[in-house]
Amino acid sequence: MEIVRSQRQLAAEAAAATGGGGAGALPTYRVAPQLEVRLEEFELFAIDRLRVLKGISDGLSRGKRPEEMEKLVSELWKAHMRHQDPAETLNKDIISHFVLRLVYCRTEELRKWFLSMEMTLFRYRFRLESPESQRLLMSEFQLPYKALPHSEFEAVKDKLSQVARSIGQSASVESVFFKVPFEEVPDLVASRRVFLSKGYAYVAMSQVVSLVVTQFRSNISKALVLTNRKWTSTIKEQEKDRLTPIVEALSNAYFGPDYSQPNDAAEISPKDIDQLARTSFPLCMRHMLEKLRENHHLKNGGRMQFGLFLKGAGLKLEDALTFWRAEFSQKVGSERFDKEYAYSIRHNYGKEGKRTDYTPYSCQKIISATPGVGDYHGCPYRHFGEENLRAALNNMGVSGNALEGILDKVKNRHYQLACTLTFEATHNVSCDTGINHPNQYFSESQKVLQAKNQTVQNQSST
Amino acid sequence: MEDERAMEIDGQQQQEDTAAVPKGFNADYLRIYYGKLFPYGDFFKWLCYGNDGKHPGCDQSYIGRRELSFTLENDIYLRFQSFDSAAELESSIKEKCPFKIDIGPVYSVDPAKRHAYAQSGNNVFAPVERELIFDIDISDYDDVRYCCSGADTCLDCWPLMTIVIKILDTSLRGDFGFNHILWVYSGRRGVHCWVCDSRARKLSNEQRSAIADYFRVYKGGENTSKKVSLTGPVLHPFLARSYTDVLKCFFEDKLLHSQQLFSSEERCNKILELIPDENVASELHDKWQGNRRSSISKEDVNAARWEQLKMTLQSGKHKAQGLRRCVEEIVFSYTYPRLDMEVSKHMNHLLKAPFCIHPKTGRVSFQLIPIIVMILILRLFQLYHSY
């Protein structure tokens, strides 16, 4: 791709030759096309695509179902990327993707986010394509899977039907199946949506999306690592007066606060924690504090989720050690605490091992946790049974219509919205941005309470 | 024979000496174990996976890229140990006498040289191969066994581990096509599974995660009382097969009785908690309240109440949502394998090596062969019940 300040060649011609969407609609970005791009478009196209990706990220964290996501993707694409001339759309599509690769290749966390969003975007765009187009795309990914021959199909038909019924589909609709090594379809295996036999998964045509998306993800993932190498070794320096400032600005502009560096003004100490939990902790953290006080212990998942949250809220390392020691020593003794647990606390603060300063978990990460026997972490709106959740919310002072509203959101799997409603009910304010991060809940809560205090002070001084 | 006669002749003294053999872990015995019993050759040969041969396909660097980690006395922890020969491994173990040996992955380069590759920041030092592993602890079943808790185990609850082996082993072979599967007693409170096929060793973290999720039914956490939820009009063939071939009869023929699951109000309530319909649960509760006649022997109570529960839930009278699979959910809750998901998901997870001595119990982590385990348990059961 050549960045110039003059005219440009249309993407369609270049794209057709290099994986830009043989079927005309959905490019696979396998190779950077030979095009010229105007400098202004470089930035603008990337920003528009970022709006789409950010919208997808939002939709995912709000727990939208597949049908809703499909609709959302279609709307976002139309709003930000579509052009009257389909060739222009394709042009923008390809260019914006490759520009964002530069922006998001530079750290592990950025790569993970970009990969996840592009994968989701691709998945839903693929679903919206015609069966013909889908089949063409499959072959483009060189998925050499032939349809199951009739004789083999007959032999496993009953099992295939059983699997279909087990996931709520009708028993006998599909007749085209592919037999693929189970390694190729991890998400179908994980959710038991395929029949497995002797290392092969029997994948229905309708599930093919999964196959394609896995390949897509793998291609982009490898490409990102290569892009990063090229960026670090040559491009960044070469482009320091032209593209580099744009690239760096783009990633800063769109990467939300991660609470890894709490501002110095916000400091908390162990003696404040119980009080703060009552007024400002989200339910997940309140719960873990309660269990910690009760059992004088938390398993690893809980220690990570709660410990990093406290760090993000402003608990310094020495205070953290004091806090955890005070509890754990009541169960395992302070010697064992120092031997077995202190290390990993220091590790979380970046003082041991590879010295990564770990980031407090976002809601998305917490929601996707898998608490096991003896665990108290995870997202209460997702992981609590209804009875437990009701009781917990009552303890927070939430009842009546507000409580029912929250439980309704939970039933529809909108866990973060449920938490947002809890925030609104307990603080008597509305929270338009929605809760995405436990530390956000905490800092918003502190803001509200400080504003209230301020008002009270102002009133009492007049 | 000679010793026995010697004991009689010398009387008291000899008997005291014999009685002085300590139970549990002992560092001196560890030294002797490493000196005379630890199977260095076989252990090394296993981990080489044939690369210690002479033919051109063998990768001479392979075994030297495998990480082992030693935990020494006083909790000194040595990671990234690697060895190029069985002799080297043997002398290092004998010299250091590690209290614990863990096996890690095979890396892209010799772990001892990892720092040389760390600077480029491109993850050139990364795991490339690792067995697919599973770790099951019987202490994770504390909420469904009344005979023991924590690290203790007995003939009544150990069969839960046998069940794990039956279900996973069958699936790993039949569904996933693996053949080289090693089951090991962990030395304390559970079993480990090492799937050693080349195909298994090359799995990515994502694929390992997928397999672990495939096996996951019990969604634990202390935050909810109902941890098994089987939705859908029918079960996936894997779950259906597990139920009809293994879990159902184990629950009804063995566990009901060995754990006396309905013999007290508290225990009954625990099961009733798993029924999502309040009305059905209280109906059964009331029925059993009235039935506490002493004429019913202990044996009958469990079987009888289970039959009543099944009849009530499956009668078709209660077609409510959520009751459909309730009987199976109860059986699964009590018997289905509870895996430690984190162990299986990551290639770089360190797991205790087979044939080691467990530092808390002093027992050897030895190999179990599924059929033999079942026969053993069965024999022990028969012996136990014949008293």
Strand order of the largest sheet of chain A: 3-5-4
Largest interface: A-B, 41 and 43 residues
Radius of gyration of chain B, in angstroms, nearest whole number: 25 Å
Helix and strand content put the structural class of chain A at: mainly alpha
Number of domains of chain A: 3
Low-pLDDT residue intervals, each spanning 5 or more residues of chain A: 4-23
Helical residue percent band of chain B: 40-55%
Biggest sheet of chain A, in brief?
3 strands, antiparallel
Question: What value does the average pLDDT of chain A take?
Answer: 84
SSE arrangement of chain A, N to C: EHEHHHHHHEHEEHHHHHHHHHHHHH
Q: Report the biggest beta sheet of chain B as strand number plus sense, adding barrel if it closes.
A: 5 strands, antiparallel
Give the proportion of residues in helices of chain A.
Answer: 55-70%
User: What's the overall geometry of chain A?
Assistant: globular
Structural write-up:
The complex is a heterodimer of chains A (462) and B (387). With 462 residues, chain A is mainly alpha-helical. Chain A has 21 helices and five strands. In chain A, strands 3-5-4 form a three-stranded antiparallel β-sheet, with helices on one face. The radius of gyration of chain A is 26 Å and the shape is globular. The model of chain A is unreliable at 4-23 (pLDDT under 50). Chain B is of the alpha+beta class. Chain B contains 16 helices and nine strands. Chain B has helices spanning 2-10, 12-19, 27-37, 40-48, 86-96, 114-118, 159-174, 198-201, 205-214, 237-258, 265-272, 278-289, 298-314, 326-335, 341-345, 370-385, and strands at residues 66-71, 77-81, 100-107, 127-129, 132-137, 181-185, 190-195, 351-352, 367-368. In chain B, strands 1, 2, 3, 4 and 8 form a five-stranded antiparallel β-sheet that branches. In chain B, helix 1 (2-10) crosses helix 2 (12-19), helix 7 runs antiparallel to helix 10 (237-258) and helix 11 (265-272) runs antiparallel to helix 12 (278-289). The relative contact order of chain B is 0.13. Chain A binds chain B through residues 159, 162-163, 165-168, 182-183, 186-187, 189-192, 195-200, 225, 229, 287, 291, 339, 370-378, 380, 383-385, 387-388, and chain B through 75, 122, 140, 142-143, 174-178, 199, 203-204, 206-207, 209-211, 213-214, 216, 218-226, 231-240, 338, 340-341. Chain A: Belongs to the eukaryotic-type primase large subunit family. Chain A: One of its GO terms (cellular component) is alpha DNA polymerase:primase complex. Chain A: It comes from Brachypodium distachyon (Purple false brome).
